[in-house]
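Session log. Operator J.P. requested a structure for one protein chain; no other inputs attached. Running the standard single-chain path with token output.
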Amino acid sequence: MKIALFSEVFIPKIDGVVNTTCRLLTYLQERGHSSILFAPAGGPQQYASTPVIGLYGFPLPMYPDLQIVPPIVNVSEQLDAFKPELIHLINPFSLCLAGLWYGLQKNIPITASYQTDLAGYANYWGVGYLSPIIWAYLRSIHNQADLNFAPSRFTQQELIANQFQRVKVWGRGVDGTLFSPSKFDDNMRYRLSQGEPDKKLLLYVGRLSTEKRIAWLRKIFECFKDIRLAIIGDGPQRNELEHLFAHTPTYFGGFMSGEELAKAYASSDIFVFPGANETFGNVVLEAMASGLAVVAPNSGGITDFVTHLQTGMLFEAHSIEAMLNQLRILLNNPELTTFLRRAAWSFAQTLTWDSIFDKLLQDYEQVIQEKRQMQASFS
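Structure written below.
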């Protein structure tokens, strides 16, 4: 199979979208498929066996590390030479329109994956009045695709409610070899706890930005004693958060990946995630695979794999007090914490990346076949 992918983000930016794209490119190489990726400039010229065509754009004011590539870029020469059987638009917004228009012109099957709740994030960016416009814009793009992918059942229902058509679930997996309780490391725990490894260690991993509501975690120090907090990640809100958490037992570890990140997960006790607008929530699943008890909002794609009192603790999505209450239950109930740690790990083992991508390839093949049959019926 020959697949042309268009992504609005790629390395050096690191987030759930980029991580999933990288894993997909590796999978395509291992399965012997050919692919080409069009993405913002600044990354590698090749990832796995996939050539990466870097296209220049301009930084988004509220996210300087996010490059917006105008859709008027010329990609025809590379695509004509590659001759794709299918085009996959990853989180389409601007750059992906170039792939959409090419596919429509050449009558090539098109799939599109919705992976970021831009309409929901608008409220945290102070432009909530734009949410209806964002929904209308994204709907106009996705409804021209032959098939759309949502990362969770929750997000699928949200898209359908907003009149998106032809929506299937393309879930996410976790690397159970990398993220594992076996990665516990005394030195890492000492580092994250800033020299107090016997204290209960809470962990947040993810982008440091307003929509993640990390500032909510400041409240835990007013409610609980003898705890430590580690915040792992980077982003536009880091300086503000470091100022907010000054003089609290909080460790800012910056960006981590690979073995270092796996050790950070496995060396902590409870994973706390305040953000309520996750279309999936990769870091939550990574924490579960690492054997952590999870406290997360009863909202978004997280609810696909966190079941209250079975694989984690869920709180009413817009209540800080509800988050604190669930955390209080865990801190006061070590037996429940132990049960949830084991249950979370066990559930995470069922979500392997290979099984996720095997299903995606089946969907690719079905879209291609249906397109061929449609073309044959008109010939």
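Operator note: The longest strand covers residues 34-40.
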